[in-house]
Amino acid sequence: MSNEEPPEPIRVIIAEDHAVVREGTRQLLEREPDLEVVGEAADGAEAVALVERLRPDVAIMDISMPVMTGIEATQRIKASHPNTAVLILTAYDDDQYVFALLEAGAAGYLLKDVPSAEVVRAVRAVHAGEPVLHPAIARKVLRRFAGPPGQARTAHTGHGGEALLTDREQEVLRLAACGLSNAEISTRMYLSIRTVQVHLTHIFNKLAVGSRTEAVIVGLKNGLLKLEDLGEG
After folding, report:
1. Are residues 150 and 128 in the same domain?
2. Does pLDDT of 36 surpass 90?
3. Whose CA is closest to 59, among 106, 91, 19, 98?
4. Do 110 and 217 share a structural domain?
């Protein structure tokens, strides 16, 4: 019989101004033994205060809320508590919201039409440092930041002329951009999950970013990734 204690549950707060939606989300998450809802907020200001007081692992946030929007709340949370992952769960897919929230540091962006199981998976994923983008949102991001098809890879080399990313790092970044999890990348590339994590750390350091979503955006902006690279996962 193992003496190992079970891992600590992922601590979550829910910020949503519609009480019925908030309660439904709470019930969904609390069915999972590894998730614990530690607080609820009805507006963005309450969400910021809850994060300050409870230091949750994940904050699930709507965009349109009274007192303070989800965008401003996300900016404040990430500025003061960068270790709290923000997962946006909303009905809005307007470009202005998508890019403002990703730039504010949101780790995930889901639309409310996703199956309930996807919300649960997303909480675990953002807690593990993996980005979560609804397919419609992912397409917007790729179109927004990708250069034209013939764009040269201007950022493919560093200051000394050496390759900025190794071939293996380049492939890890490409698969991450296709939405594969660390486990799926490890299977695809015949690497251990730990090795994939090390490659991602190196990529983050080289690109001066803090998340997979940021790495993909920087890669697209600078020609390290192109849309034709992302046609298959």
Report:
1. no
2. yes
3. 106
4. no
